[in-house]
User: Fold this.
Amino acid sequence: MANDDGTFGFEDLQKAFNRIEQKYENKTDAMLMAMANTARQRVRSKTPTGKTKKLKGSWRTKKPKTFGKTRVARVQTENRYGHVVEEGHKVVTGGSTVGRNGRKLNVLQRGIRGVSVGGKTKAEKMIENTVKELNSAFGKNAEKLLDDLTREVEL
Assistant:
């Protein structure tokens, strides 16, 4: 790609960047989907099995989209209580801990109404732990992707 005198011209550089740009989106989407599928499998394996076993099978990957300048592939659940299992929650039996006026009930009021708070469930952190595990793998995959793109163009 060098000129006859051994120099590298601006036009050649522009053509090389255009070739990289054409291949970039498809290759990044493929890498993002591969990482999202790996994350989905790991999250699914870390998800606790409840009575219905619905949460474990509800994890899905979504195709990459652009948000601002960032390309994102999502892993999400179709269940509305996935965040509760991730973060943990209070165990309440016998009613609500919130009164009619929207204020929290104190201990005496809860006792009169028969509401008991039995502690808190363990936060599973299946998503958070998976993201921590995959951070280093994502960096390595991104570097490999850039190396492959620049190697194909031969700058």
Remarks:
- The helical segments are 10-46, 82-87, 107-113, 126-153.
- The radius of gyration is 25 Å.
- The first strand starts at residue 59 and ends at 67.
- Strands lie at 59-67, 70-77, 90-93, 116-120.
